[in-house]
């Protein structure tokens, strides 16, 4: 067993993990102060010098490469942060995974390990979709480079947890077995114990008594004190499953997580305590309910209404065995009602209700004038079926159909038929049904994205990707019974359903995963961006002259695809990348290589990443040649801007085929101007792509509760606005100007327009009443330039207005902005430059920090030293801007002793040489 494995496996409590982390971080960040590896836990605490682990996000590659064995240290820290399993530790691991990447690339080693740690952290932070992809990338590294058994074990632990989070317990069992095998290969006693506990938990949920007894016997022979609570809980549950006698158990406390990002015993409710919460779908509640009702004789003591809710809960989690046992109990209570429940599952509630309330001997035919029909079909499924036995085909299709059912039936859809690998769903066909087309489109796209995630998880279990085509049509249908008097079938017929099937088939050749007829929209025109926050798709007008096979009349079609049709991840500003198979960097990477589309490298003639992509599409197309869609990933920088989003939008069109070349060229021209801080028609921002883009990003972020997902939220918001602008430009080709394109739809993005108009008035008042100019240096300009000092600005977008202010000297905006955000109890100041203009303030933060230290010493107001905030020597320094390309300088969080006049004077006297 190597040193890394020993340290990881011997940390068996949170306190032990924290002590080892302190030692490792001190050695990594402050090597001169570090102790030897033999330092004990008590010795670390005795020194009284705890390190704030957030320093890890600020340490640069330049600093780390001077350390001894940095890769070893970073890897050990990442593993322990993952083992801790807390949200803050996982955020730190996420940041540190970016630090590991350049070391691996520079040394021609596997960068997969960086992706592995990153993906594990993302799964724990509820970024499950992206985390699954990154973990899969990390585990695939063992094809070329050897990945340690410990890292493989952590990867499969994360995938097992992700499968649980996605309510796929069958797949979770597959990954838990892989987790155990990897742990056994690495002689990881603790991981073997944890894997077996998880396998026992999953077996208990399935009611697999034989496996439970075997695992319980194994666990009893190798107990660990720190897992006693969790082990006892599962052992008691096993005895209950075996003999049916109730035994009180503990709450299953764990020294660190048993599952990543998923709670299993904590905060669980039983039906008696909180009926609504108990059946809410949470995994912890499933565990509590399965434990309390683990045998049929226990179920017989419960009221019928609770049993019916419990049965529905088990069906959500695909627990067929326990569900069958429960239905037998329900049949004993009320055989007819139980049979109707089973028929409802087979036929669907709407069809069952229609059958029970109509006479099948003389079936009437009912006309519905405004039905919506949705047809799906799996792509290239005949080939897949040819390569597999019939039983495997059920395993491939059932998870996909479950997703479609979960997304579309709750909003009023009825699954009319399963036809092999196809499904026909109908909306607004049965009485008391009405679903808006927008709701159907949103949930259809959500289904496709969930299937995409399912494909990513399935790759690690050697299952093929399943990809669907979808056709949606609206119009009159006839609902009735088809067949003879001895055997008939309730179905829907008419040209509307025939055309829906043809549209599904057209998705093979037209751009878009979902093909929708114009009849689905009011007045044959989509108005989806009137409520833009709901839009999770891109929409393209495919024209009015499409001739479906065997349909005489041409139809007007629209194509839809998800806003993010590929995997997207984010890296820090200024990230330097190396070419990677299946990975494309956009507006980041700082290199002139295939797969890295970034205009910031020396000698680049393009003014934006979007322009570079369209000028040299081979950088993308040749790099990803031969790869499937599920193998592609795009990486952008944090806080994605217009260039990031536009480059991804253009890349998606190039990859999907049939790109709108002229419109994309106009888009790149506009983006290049914006990226150079040359904003076209700044007085028309409320009608412009850039203005609406900025406002919609802000409104979208304010509606987002999870800070971890902010980059993804910003990107989705940007793509919505770009897609709406491109749609309008296609409708108004004479305009050819994204600077005023939204004038054609004044009802779209109404809140964003109002925000911009009100904010511009606020900025004008800020400049008139709460500002002054001063001259100082910034890096990137040969001479001192005029900047604007704003005192408590009321404007939200003051940076947008200030960097493009036509009233600034020179008429092209201010070179820098200084902002006073002081309160009555502390002074706070920020100075920033527009990073799009290749300006920075590197060195100014250190100068302000030096003045801060001198003045504090003079007045006897020292700051606490520990925990040290790297790269300063105290816990609350000025922020130098190292994480933002030195584009912003920020005062200490607890305030500065420097006055506004002193900060301005220091900047004015700064010689940036």
Automatic annotation (TrEMBL):
GO terms for molecular function: adenylate cyclase activity. Residues 372-504 form the Guanylate cyclase domain. CDD domains: CHD. InterPro entries: A/G_cyclase, Adenylyl/Guanylyl_Cyclase_3/4, Nucleotide_cyclase. GO terms for biological process: cyclic nucleotide biosynthetic process; intracellular signal transduction. PANTHER family: ADENYLATE CYCLASE, TERMINAL-DIFFERENTIATION SPECIFIC, ADENYLATE CYCLASE, TERMINAL-DIFFERENTIATION SPECIFIC-RELATED. This is Guanylate cyclase domain-containing protein. It comes from Vecturithrix granuli.
